[in-house]
């Protein structure tokens, strides 16, 4: 056979093979009547991977973490009381809390609602959420992933960290284990779990973008003791995620989602979470004492920066640290020998590069706890031990006593809180805490209604406390009376009924 014949034979064979291949493909992709979709998809050349061939690399398995955490993230809905005199909180704009000046109906019949998320942190029903989700609430409802519903009791709140502790009466609940937010690293994968836009059990993924962020969102809290040392992440968080879980891929709680950086009210790229080390301490305080125990150094501080150096006309010996601008008298810092002009560089051996990090480290402590402070003075590094004090200047632990409840005929009343007296500009009253009395419900009594006076045949009686209301009701059994007061939004209302 000549070379010319050989090459012509090879060319012909290649041509015939190509024609047969094209014919085969045309046959496979040609619609066949009677085929199932499963058969159609199996015949496709598009999907090259099948489930058994695809494996998730070790260490980035989102599925396992999501399955562990989702059952323990709840939907929180609050009936929120706002006074028309109150100023709008900027957090409302982040998470869709209704404007108190909005349409609330007549007679206070329609209460504004706040919606967010919460995380079960113990099998017996303790739940962590954001303070702004339940702030001013007269009733808090909890919905589990399995659609079970509970009414929650507010155990305690801490506006300085925007955290709150709730409790529902249930047992054997799934819960999320606390992780160590100190061990999180920038670039680490995380999941955000919550209920954005009332879409229950939504999971999004992202990475830790930064740590110890102060974004200036917690303003005007009591005594100016706000703590902002957020974990920053690019996991998608939207209105309704507030109070939900930020977890690592081991399913451990490393933060409580709190805020978003946005100009539109929806996610624009970054969200912020309270770190779990701080969350755990605050939750322990609220459960044990009903109030957060804050240990304070008693110093005014600023970030070390070129701008501060220029302002003070000083040359700092370090590029990062916390500059002490002043020391309060009778404070922990004063007694420990810290002076104005010192630069604090570590707390308990951990570097504190900015104010947010220092505040977070100290906020984990209680009055009476000791911290080791390392600082630079006149170019020399020194250490000292400081015994933290509370805002009153001592080391006492302060417990918040639960309001005393008074009962009468299926109703439960409490004294009006001091904060509500100031907000509504009234001297006192009795608040309806719960109501299982049908006659009172039909008359218009609702949970949260504030009774300020009552009228009987012998005249009008001012009600300054729950005990005074109980005394009045006992004295007028069998009589028709008029109850006067207001809803928590300040709307005046009255109703008539007969006391049984």
Question: What brief labels describe this structure?
Answer:
22% helix; Thrombin, subunit H; alpha+beta; Pdz3 Domain; 500 residues; 4 domains; 12 helices
Give an overview in words.
- The structure is a single chain.
- This protein has 500 residues and is of the alpha+beta class.
- It folds into 4 domains: 95 residues, Thrombin, subunit H, CATH 2.40.10.10; 109 residues, Thrombin, subunit H (Beta Barrel); 89 residues, Pdz3 Domain (Roll); 93 residues, Pdz3 Domain, CATH 2.30.42.10.
- 22% of the residues lie in helices and 31% in strands.
- The strands form 4 sheets. Strands 19, 20, 21, 22, 23, 24 and 25 form a 7-stranded antiparallel beta sheet that branches. A 6-stranded antiparallel β-barrel has the order 1-2-3-6-5-4. The chain has a 6-stranded antiparallel barrel with strand order 7-8-9-12-11-10.
- It is flat and about 110 Å long.
- The chain starts with a helix and ends with a strand.
- The relative contact order is 0.10.
- About 6% of the residues have low confidence.
